[in-house]
Specification:
CATH topology of one domain: Arc Repressor Mutant, subunit A
CATH class of one domain: Mainly Alpha
Largest sheet: none
Distance between the termini: 80 Å
Strand content: under 5%
Radius of gyration: 23 Å
Order of helices and strands: HHHHHHHHHHH
Structural class: mainly alpha
CATH architecture of one domain: Orthogonal Bundle
Oligomer: single chain
Helix content: 55-70%
Mean pLDDT: 80
Length: 224
């Protein structure tokens, strides 16, 4: 066996791998299919992405970045609009790729489009008067809410009801009517035609914005 055979596989960049994966239909996305599209062996592709899970992660992050790259946040000085637009964009981007991957793979992502949006939000929060720590916490809270909302959308039933609510309602039917009164009251007054994910997303985001407003209102007055 020659040194060339035993040596390092042909150099393949992540951009080349992603470009090749885009040419393969999602249902046919396998290591072999992408290797064929690249004109290399499957072993060579394994060297750079590890396995199919690694390939999927690379493809999903590329799709996520392309989703966010189309987003334009408000350019005015209203930090509330900027934070809200960021949360919506982040949620929608996650929903677009949610069926292809576990959301946990996107935690801590460094996609340039996501970084650009985060920087724009932090700039708006800092300009509003928040200190760096409060601005960081506000951005993190909005990101967490977006991820939770995306999870909820994926977990909804066809009618827009979260599966957890549907399962809870079904479980209560097997319990005596005089048990769990608070839980029954809440579920009984819920509006089944409205979408749980949108309701929860709006509530949580409004709560974060209200909290940041209180922090700003509590700032010591700046003398002229």
């Amino acid at each position: 066996m020659s040194d060339r055979t035993r040596g390092r596989p042909p150099r393949i960049s992540q951009d080349q791998i992603v470009a090749a994966a885009r040419r393969v239909a999602t249902r046919d996305l396998t290591m072999q299919a992408v290797a064929d599209a690249l004109g290399v062996s499957r072993k060579a592709l394994h060297y750079y992405v590890g396995d199919r899970e690694g390939l999927l992660t690379l493809v999903v992050l590329d799709q996520f970045e392309r989703e966010l790259d189309r987003v334009e946040l408000p350019v005015d000085d209203d930090w509330r609009k900027v934070l809200r637009a960021y949360a919506v964009a982040f949620r929608d981007g996650l929903i677009q790729v949610g069926t292809a991957t576990d959301f946990t793979r996107l935690r801590g992502l460094s996609a340039s489009a996501a970084l650009a949006l985060a920087d724009r939000v932090l700039d708006a929060l800092l300009a509003a008067g928040l200190d760096p720590e409060a601005a960081r916490c506000g951005l993190t809270a909005a990101s967490n809410i977006a991820q939770s909302a995306a999870h909820t959308v994926v977990a909804q039933t066809a009618s827009g009801v979260h599966r957890h609510r549907a399962q809870t309602t079904a479980a209560l039917k097997n319990e005596p009517q005089n048990t769990y009164p608070a839980l029954r009251r809440v579920l009984a007054t819920a509006e089944p035609k409205r979408h749980d994910a949108d309701i929860q997303f709006t509530f949580e985001l409004n709560s974060v914005i209200a909290g940041l407003e209180r922090i700003l209102a509590a700032r010591p007055a700046v003398s002229e």
